Amino acid sequence: MKHTNIHAGVILIPDFSGFTEFVFNTKLYTGEYIVRQLLSTLIDMNDQYFEISEIEGDAILFYRYDNNPSYQRISKMLWKMRNAFNQKIKELNKELSISIDMSLKFIVHYGKFSQYTIGNFKKLYGKTVVEAHQMLKNNFAEQPSYALFSNSFLENSGNREAEINTQEYYLPEGEMIHYFENAH
Questions:
Q1: 132 within a domain of the structure (yes/no)
Q2: pLDDT per residue over 125-167, tens digit each?
Q3: Sequence-ordered list of residues with C-beta below 8 angstroms from that of 150, at least 6 positions apart, any chain
Q4: How many domains does the chain have?
Q5: Around Cβ 112, how many Cβ atoms within 10 Å?
Q6: The whole model's pTM is what?
Q7: What gap in Å lies between CA 63 and CA 170, rounded to an integer?
Q8: Residues 6+ apart with CB under 8 A from 88
Q9: How confident is the model at residue 22 (pLDDT cuts 50, 70, 90)?
Q10: Contact 110, 153 (CB under 8 A)
Q11: Residue 118 is part of a domain; what is its CATH number?
Q12: Which residue, 172, 179, 161, is CA-closest to 70?
């Protein structure tokens, strides 16, 4: 069976750290309102660069078919998303007189994947999608606010000169972590 729906592209997953504890310690209506505001902020900062495959709880599965992804453009977008996320948390803390203890982590991966449709839903399929989800469950991130770039993404992206001052840590498998705050 020949499959012409397979393309190379970027998978981006922004995910909230501290979400489970937040859900258990926040009233249902208040929690839903906060999560909706935070997810909307990330979607707005995307500027329609990535497509949305799905939103699940506290994570968005973004994708973009791209044979030559730009490290610099995506890195800048992550900073923009992270800053807007933090600003929205400050606004919500003040508006609702509560303390929201969540931060943001990003997974950026590259590879081949396909897409199929079920009803009104477009679903991504492939090893690359599963690998990106597995990267969310890592033991090497020392801080809650970071971006993890896969080795595959780093090898296939151009414009590696980051204009943003970040702390970079390379992992044995070739992945790289950018911490948004100074590492302790």
A1: yes
A2: 999 999 998 888 876 666 678 888 888 898 888 755 554 455 6
A3: 107, 108, 109, 110, 131, 132, 135, 174, 175
A4: 1
A5: 13
A6: 0.87
A7: 24
A8: 37, 38, 41
A9: very high
A10: yes
A11: 3.30.70.1230
A12: 161
Say which residue, 47 or 164, is predicted with more confidence: 47
Residue 103 has pLDDT above 50, yes or no: yes
Residue with tokens 């995910």: 15
Res 50 pLDDT > 90: yes
Nearest to 76 by CA among 54, 53, 99, 108: 108
Tell me if 34 is assigned to some domain: yes
Tell me the Ramachandran region of residue 119: left when phi exceeds 0, alpha when psi lies from -120 to 50, beta otherwise.
left
Strands 103-118 and 59-65: what pairing?
unpaired
Rounded distance between C-alpha atoms, residue 29 and residue 142, angstroms: 32
Amino acid at site 24: F
